[in-house]
Amino acid sequence: MNITLLKQHIDSYKQELSKNPEQATEALVERKERCAYYQGWTRERILSMSEEDFLQYMAKLWAMLIWGNKKYVVDKMILDNGFDALRKELADLVWGDAPLSKRWDTFKKSVKGFGPAMMSEILCHAHPDQCMLWNRRAYVGFDYLGIKDLPRYNYQMAGKKYVELSEQAKKIADILKDSGMPEVNLLTVDYLIWDELQVVDNLSKIHEKAATQKSEPPPAIVDKETSTFIHNEIRDKLATIGEWLGFKSKTEIKVADGSHVDTIWEATIGNMGRVIYVFEVQTKGSIDSLIVNLLKALNNPAVQGVVAVSDSTQLEKIRKHAKEVPNLGAKLKCWDYEKVLETHDALEMVNETINSLGLVPQGF
């Protein structure tokens, strides 16, 4: 970490706060109120919360700003996980007795619909002295300070890595305290990152920089557990991209006996019927199986396109296999999984910005 650079920005941050003491007071009050709210949800309260309580609990998160219709997202979480199981896993994540890294990994494996941004924000609000808030902004800030080995994608954020990053945030908090900042915790660090460390070039060129660095191992050669995480992250982000584009998205959809596809985008055109796009994510496993699933999907006349998603090496193999299959080669589209993740991040930024304007009020 570049301590000299950090101290320069802390000095700048303090100067800005001193120029506007009302804003500084409001920020401190906001931090206290957010922490008090989430700390008030004890293990027992979480286990007994209603679905309406859960909606309010989730809607307050900054990570939910990317969604205009928060109730839709929360209802999907409840449907995908079952509410009893969801409450138990959430209570264990926030208040469990196991080490933080283990609680993180268990929740990540067990619960659908939560990424590191949501998980870390809840933990940061409940335990602001121990847990940092990790999201795209934190990545940019840490990268700017020269902190190494940052997780670029969700599948890279294991519990051990989250604990390591929180330790880095604690170092920043200690320097903030030494500078004379009052009532500092890791949520204060998040405010510093947001206000001072969002360098325009870093934020706008985040993917360009990543492309010039040593790439991650392609999904075809990683271990089984990592392959599963990559597969699930891409599957879920494909669904989210579809929803942001106005489609009705679903994951793990049965297309025929014994065959499921990873993601579909669906739209209804007036009274004319449905239009469906099908996506299959390939990290490990049989290419023949992928092709069979896509062929079965094409038997549905509503399916207008099928897309294979994988790394560049696998996609080349898939194209070669598909050319030999009647009725598939000309219809198959291929999408590199890294481009999917980049597209998701770009749309996330757009939706967060638009929704933060409050142009469309929340419904009942």
From TrEMBL:
Origin: domain of life: Bacteria
State the protein's name: Uncharacterized protein
- Give the species: Syntrophotalea acetylenica
